[in-house]
UniProtKB/TrEMBL annotation:
The chain crosses the membrane at residues 12-34, 46-72, 78-98, 105-129, 149-166. The keyword Ribonucleoprotein does not apply. This is Membrane-associated HD superfamily phosphohydrolase. Keywords: Hydrolase, Membrane, Transmembrane, Transmembrane helix. GO terms for molecular function: hydrolase activity. The lineage of its organism: Bacteria, Bacillati, Bacillota, Bacilli, Lactobacillales.
Amino acid sequence: MNSKFYNRKYKLTIKHLTMLALLVAICSVGRMAFTWVPNFTPVTTLFLLICLNVGTVDAIIVANLTMLATALYLGMGYWVFGQMLAYSLVLILFSLLIRLGLFKNFIILVGIAFISSMAYGFIISWFMVFTLNFGVFWAYYSVGISYDLMHGFGSAVFMLMLYFPFKSFKLYIQKALV
């Protein structure tokens, strides 16, 4: 079985761990820099770009470690596990879209960044309703839809800003991991 999700040849070398640590640091700083604006952070876009350019497993590792690292400053609670689950599911769905080859057009990628953020909000709302046993999902989700729209708008804006610089960063990553 040869899959990008599970690869027996996947090895964590010192260079690879250093790259992951630097990506976690970049994502954590990006999240902390925009805490004053609700749901307008570059982390979702960075996770999608890592998934697109580096790999799904690395993107999930960076996403989960970023959520843990920033939770130490922003506050740790049961919702952190929901964030980790939601980002993992979004990145897996995004990697499936990568396999379909939908990223030949930059505008489609910006739209998928918006949709991915909306999917994250949907999954995290489902997790909160399930965890807190509210019972009425659509009422809970409809209250937070404005935050999800802000998250989607922010991800689209950051995709416009970060896509081309990250492509040159991808070349650096490829050279570093050789």
